[in-house]
Amino acid sequence: MHTTAGAHMRAELTSQPETWARAAAMRDEQALLPASGARIAVVGCGTSWFMAQSYAALRESAGHGETDAFTASEFPFGRGYDAIVALTRSGTTTEVLELTERVKGKTPVIAVVGDTSSPLVDIADSVIGLPFADEQSVVQTRFATTALALFRASVGESLDAAISDAQAVLDGTDDDALAEAEQYSFLGMGWAMGLAHEAALKMRESSQSWTESYSSMEYRHGPIAIAAPGRITWQLGSAPEGLQAQVEATGARFVQHPIDPMADLVRLHRVALDRAVAKGLDPDQPRNLTRSVVLDG
Fold first, then answer.
1. Which parts of the chain register pLDDT below 70?
2. For 64, which of 21, 36, 54, 93 could close a Cys bridge (C-beta 3.0–4.6 Å)?
3. How is domain 7-154 classified at the architecture level of CATH?
4. Where are the beta strands (DSSP E) in 150-218?
């Protein structure tokens, strides 16, 4: 039993450069993902849903075919897809299991899982296991980003810069003020929008903080109203022209780092952990949460 709050989360988040490199090299497993040109859906719940959004944006923008992302409970069964990619750390999430059972024999499901002994492994048509990225902390870090590293490599992206940027983040120190804001708004464009949603979720889960997330352009259509002194607007990746000046005019702090957005999420992981610990919380066992959502009945 660990005695230091967030000990598992700290060990797991700092291992990300290593797990990303391992996933990027898994060429045989990447070949199990739907072929270029296939019309696919990517499903997951919570963190996995946000990674599904990023993968969908990456795959479609790279010209590999129409790609939709859904939370598993909102999957549109009336639509036709060539394949479904189901992302789940535990492989026990009720909604994902029910979806897979429902489409069995109609639409092939490729499961990307952390726990390769889980029930999903037995009912999916193909399985990509990432057990080396599985986690003990309830708050996900490396499994989500390692799966995204696998997806990025599968559409032809190099992970070298992301890995280098993430290691530089981990080797450096963070501005203490990043963990001390009253409120956080996370922004992203394209595939980084899923990362913005994930960043907000991480901060909420780990430290019970007030966080929101938006498309960078959408932020100016109302949500910027909450920007104020003592609050942070954090852009992952490139920002629209003029946004920084507009945010700073409110007195809020605009945060943006010129690194791969996935590496900037690693920075946020550490900020979230530090904020949680400073508040006397343990992100390995956050309030009201469990490792997997398993529904009764």
1. 1-3, 288-297
2. 36
3. 3-Layer(aba) Sandwich (3.40)
4. 183-188, 211-215
